[in-house]
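User: Now give one protein:

AI:
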Amino acid sequence: MDPLPLVSIVMPVYNTAPFLEEAVKSILQQSFSDFEFIIIDDGSTDGSLDILKAFKDERIVLLSNGINRGLVFTLHRGLKASKGRYIARMDGDDISLPDRLKLQVEYMERHPEADLVTSFVDLIDEHGTHIGVWEDDRQHYTPSSIRSFLPENNSLAHPSVLAKAEIIRALGYRTAQPDAEDYDLWLRWASTGHSLHKIAEPLVLHRIRKGSFTRLRQQNVYLKNATTKRRFIIHELWKGRLNMFVCKTVLMLMVDVVRGVMKMAFGKKRNG
């Protein structure tokens, strides 16, 4: 019987054909090799599944939803299929730098108190051109700073995550947060006392596409964040958790509502 892999990489795929080969190869060519690569095609209509079928690597576990079931469903399917001690995330249009997994696994092994580790990300466009960095990502990289900032906003890039499998499986992703499944998870991660760490160097190239879901859903980020926080707070209260982290999130929700309403009002004035 084959030994279990140390890392399970979970990569949902939906219509990322132009970038998919480069994304997959960036994992298969990692300097760290003790992993299984769980790829779930979520009903792609652009030939993504055919591209994936062309790869012949025994570490790949290729699954297909058949029809589009959404990101949260697909992530849960990947978590259920995973066997590793750690679970890493990857997206079908991003690029993991060659030492990403090696450095993250080494970090987790050196820091047993860490329950999750991310890294900085560099931003690239559709052509692979570097277009900048995510400022919140760069400014909040210590465990204390990440935890302190989370009630205000997210500073963790989902496709750069490597986490302890038992924790991420237990917390999971919530269908109640389809537009912010990652931010909701980090809020619950912190609220339940688990630690979040970050390697202060870029290990992932995160692609920003003009028509991407990430960009389209942030037209009024304040109201979007307020909705995410409201749903998180309701969940925590239902679970009987009312702590300082939740209280701070309540405060920041109110700030978001004010900022969001002001943004809408000023936008109407400019267009009026």
Q: What stands out?
A: DSSP finds eleven helices and nine strands in the chain. The beta strands are 7-13, 35-41, 60-64, 86-89, 95-96, 116-124, 130-133, 162-164, 197-207. The first helix runs from residue 17 to 28.
